[in-house]
Write a structure and sequence with these properties.
By secondary structure, this protein is mainly beta. The protein contains 1 helix and 10 strands; from the N terminus they run βββββββββαβ. The protein has one helix at residues 143-150; strands spanning 11-12, 15-16, 24-26, 51-54, 62-69, 77-86, 91-93, 101-102, 122-131, 154-164.
Length: 167
């Protein structure tokens, strides 16, 4: 299994991280900073890669997953928003699955949009947030809406970054 990444940070959108940050996100399909396999892109099946989240804060009620590409020509392109993922021990998100309520991506639709950069190599960030409350919102919110709702409730954050370039 690929190891993780980054998880120690102090402030995000007005939220304080409580205690020592230790949550981790990883994938058995790629490591931090390595290539995302074609199966999970527009040149493959286009399904979400499997992810594992562990070392959740004990106070966590739910998780939020945001996948985006800051290298997109028009700026940050949101590939997936999932919220109200139940926080219970280790979380395994299977490929081609939906672990919680879905928000809208940059195409204005619910669901995962696979990496498909128009040119060059792009970075894709899989960011997971542990929250101290359930958002209890309907489907279809934007990344911005979810970030606003998370303010003051983030207990920890971790991210996994993969690269992709069309061949």
């Amino acid at each position: 299994m690929a190891l993780v990444l980054f998880s120690a940070w102090a402030l995000f959108a007005g939220s304080t991280v409580y205690g020592e940050a230790s949550m981790k996100i990883s994938s058995p399909e790629f490591e931090y900073g390595s290539a995302i396999p074609a199966e999970f892109t527009c040149q493959g099946k286009g399904v979400n890669p499997p992810l594992s989240i562990d070392s959740l804060p004990p106070e966590a009620k739910t998780l939020v997953l945001i996948v985006d590409d800051p290298d997109a020509p028009g700026g940050d392109f949101v590939h997936w928003v999932v919220y109200d993922i139940p926080a219970a021990g280790r979380i395994d998100i299977e490929k081609d699955s939906v672990p919680g309520r879905q928000g809208v991506n940059s195409a204005g639709r619910l669901g995962y949009i696979s990496p498909c950069p128009p040119s060059g190599t792009h970075r894709y960030f899989f960011k997971i947030y542990a929250l101290g409350k359930e958002l209890a919102l309907g489907d279809g919110l934007s990344k911005r809406d979810i970030e606003e709702e998370m303010k003051g409730n983030i207990l920890d954050k971790a991210e996994l970054m993969g690269l992709y370039r069309k061949k």
